[in-house]
Write a structure and sequence with these properties.
5 helices; single chain; 230 residues; alpha+beta; six-stranded antiparallel beta barrel
Length: 230
């Protein structure tokens, strides 16, 4: 993770790139094969862990929002149980809006946690902090935190919507299982390949790290600009 307040030369050294390359990145000229690496190199630079309980506040001239942080994480592999330690992560509102297409998520509308496991690599490696918007259904294709049946272990998976209400539960890492579920009614689905019936319970949708090219570029350039004294 990079520290705030570095000049361009120090930032370039920390990232092991040239100053000219850094300037290209700051201008939004970032190769596709470098975007995941940059997100995870600087992604935590805008996040501050605190023990406060205020829903929102202002630091200097920058408006920020506090979202609860759940330790334990969500499984990218076997499900993980969440643990509420009373900690919060502070995120500037303008950075948050870059991830949410201009929306501000209040403190009770999202939470932070971490990925535990490798099934969602390369975009969500083990240990990646994620911001989860609280939703209770699959509203669109994307990455969701969910659990199956009455299992307390939560997982993060990519969901693709198929015809007839069917969904595909995708592990981005091809070494892990992807399965297709056919709807039976309400939240019940059939996993015909494994002769199973199961309930899919949705806890939220991942909004950070971003998942669209525009949001990825906006996040990287905005965060790098904040971290570097220009």
């Amino acid at each position: 993770m990079l520290e705030k307040g570095l000049n361009q030369e120090e930032t370039a050294v920390s990232l092991k790139i040239s100053v000219s390359t850094l300037k290209n990145y700051l201008g939004g000229r970032i190769p596709k094969n470098k975007r995941a690496w940059l997100l995870h190199s600087i992604g935590e630079g805008e996040q501050t862990l605190s023990n406060g309980h205020s829903e929102s506040l202002t630091e200097g001239t920058s408006s920020v929002v506090r979202h609860r942080y759940f330790a334990g994480g969500v499984g990218a592999g076997p499900g993980q149980e969440q643990e509420d330690t009373g900690e919060y992560i502070i995120t500037p509102v303008d950075v948050l809006k870059a991830w949410t297409s201009g929306r501000t998520l209040d403190s009770d509308e999202a939470y932070w946690t971490r990925v535990r496991g490798t099934s969602m690599e390369p975009w969500l490696p083990d240990g990646t902090p994620i911001l989860v918007e609280v939703v209770h259904g699959i509203t669109a294709a994307g990455r969701y935190v969910l659990y199956f049946d009455d299992d307390d272990g939560e997982e993060v998976k990519r969901i693709e919507k198929l015809g007839g209400g069917a969904i595909k539960v995708v592990s981005d890492n091809p070494a892990h299982v992807t399965r297709t579920l056919r709807p039976l009614g309400e939240d019940m689905y059939s996993d015909d390949d494994n002769d199973l019936r199961l309930r899919v319970n949705v806890r939220g949708r991942v909004v950070f790290p971003p998942d669209t090219p525009q949001a990825i570029l906006s996040t990287i350039t905005q965060q790098m600009s904040r971290l570097v004294n220009r």
